[in-house]
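Running low. Got one?
___
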Amino acid sequence: MLILDGHNVLFAMLPGGKAPSPDALEAAQAQLVGSLIRHHSATGEPATVVFDSSRFRGGAHGDRRESGLRILFTHPPNTADDEIRRLVEASTAPRRLRVVTSDREVMRACTARGAAVVPSPVFLREMRLEAQRAAPDEAERDAKTGRPSAEEMDEFLKAFGEAGPDRRMALGARRPRAHSR
């Protein structure tokens, strides 16, 4: 079972250096949730993603379940880090857990209980590779995984002020196809 530090993974997805706008953060959250649902469909691995509600405009409410994914929102004074540690400590089989975070304190606490820890950027790379292996054709792969097109990636990057083809390719967008006639 996966347990993900939601905001830690979100910030690994986003271009560095700037804090995202509330709209961009919510859009990235929706993209992450969609990717995790597709991951569950491909692997059967259930997942729990934990977000700090205070980081969303007006706070996020309503824990929910969607297609093998449990989405939790913590409320102050509790944090996502606190909830992840609690989930690992409460597990009767912590060695079956994979915790996705790059937070060193959370990593230490989870490994001390026997859970495997995967840094957020490594997990995102694994998901990208898994999606590529699962689909033989680029168009089919994009349709199944929701991998953004070059144009969609440009729009996303413009929202964060870091647009351009070099940055887009570094983030894994597919290259535009050359049109042949």
About this structure: The first strand starts at residue 2 and ends at 5.
